[in-house]
Batch of 4 targets.
Target 1
Amino acid sequence: MTNGRLKTRGPRQGGQAIRRALAVLRTLAVGGERGVPLAEVVQATSLARPTVHRIVHVLIEEGIVERSERTGNYVVGRQVPELALARPSRSPLMVAAEPHLAAASAQLGDTLFLTVRTGLDTLCVARRIGSYPIQVLSIEVGVRRPLGVSSAGVAILAAMPTAEARKIVLANETRFAAYRTDTATVLGQIQLARRRGYNLRDVGLVQGTKSLSAWIRTPDGQPAAAITLSAMRNRLGPRRAIEVADVLVSAARAIEAAAAKG
């Protein structure tokens, strides 16, 4: 401090290395139990192979990453969920969403998902199975995907300012190929969702299905999550899609109001 004022500092020393390590860790989280080969980590992070190799092996030494003896892929280490036990309470958003997720699922009969944004990814944090005889269980709780890949991810991006959404899409560009999509397709989906006020995906992640998502904002207006219904294609024809959209958008607004009350 000089003359009673804080001295302006540049980027924190070591910050870049930490961000690179976190980028690697988030990429591994997408792979779940299957894990991710080193080449895919390199592609997803756009880091040099020697850099990724060095980061991965430091994380292995610290117990944060493990290498599968069977596949040779790298996976998030078992120490990570142990660290998460230090803060076991659910987020205010999840608490606020629970009754509305249950009510909407009971009303519509199909499976509903709650997906949150985490960095450049989406993370499924809750799933409510409906009563209709045929349910589409397209994603498990705990599955992480790049923003823009899933119906929920597109909905969250559609709730952002155009420039911010485009920046995220471009940051995830190299990761889209693994999900058989591309930047132009994702940007087009975002524009359409923004016009509709919700996202309707005619081709779901599971063949023969469709998905519809409504975004959820935090009390300060930031897009933070989405509520999604997945169903067989014949369950989401034009007329019912409008009905489902009304229910999901209403549920999303109710969740926002409940979260704002704390």
Target 2
Amino acid sequence: MKEKLVSGLLYLISLLPFWLLYLISDVLFVLIFHVIGYRKHVVFENLRNAFPEKSDAEIKQIARDFYRYFPDLLVEIVKLASISAKAVRERIELLNPEEVYRHIHAGKSVIGVTAHYGNWEMGIHSLSLMMDTPELIIYKPLNNKVFNEVYNRIRTRFGATMVPMKQILRHMIKLKNVPHISMFVADQTPVYQESDYFMEFLNQETLVYTGTERIARMTKNPVVFCEIRRKKKRGYYYCKFTTLVENPDEYPEHEITHIHNRFTEQIIREEPAYWLWSHRRWKRKRRS
């Protein structure tokens, strides 16, 4: 019952035109940044640790830019509950889809990698509309089962299949002989049972998810990064695909993990405001 109520409410809100949703976003910015101060201590601590070379003024500006973008992201995600395929195609420009197609046409599946950067949720819709082959979205289930079901229903509107991390192999075995794309959001915070590998990421020792590399090695499939950047116009993005690894067998252990994390880090450094700084990315520490 709760799921239907939440889903219905989000759908009704999603029917509002973008211009009205952005007015709501303007109000949310004032509330989140100036009134509530949502996770300010987390955001500022993350930024100061990630960019020790930046001044207080620069950190404050990045934080403000993040909080200005964050409510835009929220209303855009809600809009995905009813957005048309035509609107998705208009709002995310695919610069080079042929980079993915060339692997598929060669009979290979693709290990896709992205991050909590820009509107990754709209990216799911865009990728679904781009592909004629199966698309698996690998995700970590939310603790709140109601929102988990609601958001997964939104994410699968254009044909994607949501796959919990623990069920990856089962789904890949089913598609063993069918070229497809499996998309990982690789900057999530893993639990200790999922990974024990640490590397430096944004100037901090970071427990990183190694599942992307393990699957790439097991399947021998290429690793392609899906880079979603925001355009100047509100609500518009472009997506660029970059093949980071052609042949996983050619790389030593952990090198593939380093490659896609370094690529993510470079994107964040270039335009830091569009990463999810409110995320508690560094809560895992080495266990003695």
Target 3
Amino acid sequence: MTTQQTSIGRAADRKTRVLVSGASFAGLSTAYWMNRLGYAVTVVEIGKTLKMGGTPVNIEGDTVDIVRRMGLLERIQSSSLPARPMEFVDAHGACLAMMSAQAGNMETSAPEYEIERDELLNMQFHDVKNDVEFIFGDSIARLEESADEVTVTFKSGKQRAFSLVFGCDGNHSAVRRMCFGEESAYSKFLQLYFSITIVDKLLIDENTSQIYNVPGKTVMLSAYNGKTDIAFCFFSEEEIPYDYRDQEKQRHMIREHFEGEGWRTRELLEEVSRYRDFYFDKLCQIKMPSWTKGRVALVGDAAYCASPAAGMGGSLAIVGAAALADAFQKHPDNFEAAFQQYNDSLRPFIEKVQADAIEFGLETFAPRSEEAIRARNARFGNS
């Protein structure tokens, strides 16, 4: 699986080597563009393989043009999921309001697609695996920057030097912690915790989604391709200390907050208890004055996580990597200028997405009062 990149272009002729930490959408997108620009790219991924599983990815807005530039659009279109309406239901399952879904269509002014995470991840990996070096089952343990390079010590004990390092390792980024400081300095807690479990059967009609709300609590089902995503989300004014490695404790927190609630909550808690597929985290946004420092740049959730409330985690990673590549294309011989353009050009877009996630996303999917629930239902109307 490890293949050395062929030297192409001006950068590779100078043997300019760059390291990408993380092999999800931010990492694979960054690897794709830096390889296209002629850099010798290495990707290090802590997992032994690509991390599979997770909820589908939305491709919309600026992301559609970027995946077209990457040669992915036709494949995304052929693998895209049917549009799913979102029903807001009461404790008896009756529909109180509905948010209609817009299916992607090349003839419309704003095409939108949704694709399973694994499908898109495999597409991106396929496009770079023969031109980029991949190191699986390892991670960065230490970074030491000099005037001309960054010496990277891996957890395995190996050391290598790179001209640039890109932290694409998620909202709990180790690269960010090493180079910019502790997560607490940049993470804005949105006073919500959530879990996602994907079960391999349909719990509602396929290609539909349903949400049940009581103040400060959300239960959501989303069905597609013969399976169902089960999501729980609850409000907490203060952060709750917990061990991110202790999944049983996390499951207990979900049971503790949702036992006794209405609709299908009891049944869904039982489903979650039977499946190993379980993800839990707090909702937060990453806000940083700069996404670059020295020879290190952050891309995707590591730099500007907007939270799942934005519905754009994968898209932001793809957009961010393209913005970084455009900056390097404009400043091929000056990484400082490229980093500055990356910071300046992308920031207005990121700030809007993060604001929309709070103003629309949280108000729509996680209202905190009966009044907010009624206002949301009135906004979308009966259907």
Target 4
Amino acid sequence: MSEPFTTGSEDVDTAMARLRDQARQHEWDLVIGLTELPIHDDDGRYLLAEIDPQRRTAVLSLPALGGLRMHARSRQAVRALVSGMAEPTPRDEHRVPLPRLSGRWRLLLGMVLANRPWRLVPGLKSALVAALATGAVATINSTVWLLAGSLSWWRLLVATIASIALVVAWLVIDGELWDRPDGNSAEARERSRLYNTSTLVTLTIGVLICYLALYVVNLAWALFVLDPAVMGGYLQTSLGYGDLFVLTWFVASAATVGGALGSGLESDEAIRAAAYSKREEERRNRLAHERT
């Protein structure tokens, strides 16, 4: 069965109590809970799994698996949990913590991949339309030709970085994606840092994918409608097809900024749905509801 965990189920004791209640209610002999949320103990340590062999209950954090080969690794982990709890002489309850340093990186990777950053662009249709329209118009603008030809490679690189950073910042602010600690404890602040880092990485990857896609689309458009000889005659200089690649680079940055303006037409719910996994989206919606 599938249902959302409550916000407090990030605490492993709460999650295990929830699973035991389900086991009693449905008269299950063995129950394993899988969650896309990171789980932690009272000391703030992030866990891969918590196992109670005597009550045949376990919870497994999918992001703690690292995000790569998730289906195979999760099946292997579930088989190991079932085998361990099915032993005739059950052991005491125990936890599988993640390493302090490498475990956090693995958990962050799992959270980012669980958010599926490659689905950001299709989820923000207004931003996509605005970016494509901006790119189409800018490509045939003679002022843009002049600007693109006058910029050095490092200025174009700065424009790329600035446009991506601007879109990420706008999505965080407009969609209210910044996670605030639910308390003053060090553990609460650490959890917020983890969630905010995963949000920034997810959005950066998603916007970078959008940037590359815009570059390809605008390059195809430029090769179709523009003639370097005509452009060179207008600008009174010699141009070749290689200059179209530079022009497209500059246009992709401008189109990305146009996409940021288009994302303002999206609702906060649409931005969260595009930026997060279903479970993380539900978690943030519940937090927002509780704080209001």
